[in-house]
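Because discrete structure vocabularies remain unfamiliar, we turn briefly to a single example record, giving the amino acid sequence and backbone structure tokens:
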Amino acid sequence: MIKVMAMMKRKPGITPEEFARYWFEEHAPLGFDLLPDDIHVRGYVQNYSIRNPGDQEPEFDGLVEFVLDDMDAFQRWLAFFMSDAAAPMRDDEKNFMDSDTIKVLVMQERVVVERHSADA
């Protein structure tokens, strides 16, 4: 499996709560509405920074994980992301994140310990 992970900071002037709400309620649904049917995203997870009282401001407010089957699926996803069809999604990023802070990693997953649900 291939994972695309991106870390980002919220744009100046919005709170961490506003960032998280917009990302979850507005941006993610927009992206999936635009995604062509022939691109299968196996998983999509949003991760939010947690601050303990007295801690410094975190370097990033969020980390997103896209899980794709293989490099071919990643190439199709990337071609879509860079296309005119995905422009509304890229433009929407300006509503809640500081695009200059985005750091992207493309990773191959190797499971060391399998996750098990609490119900199993």
Q: What stands out?
A: The mean pLDDT is 93. Residues 16-34 form the longest helix (19 residues). The chain has one domain: 2-108. Helices lie at 16-34, 71-82, 87-92.
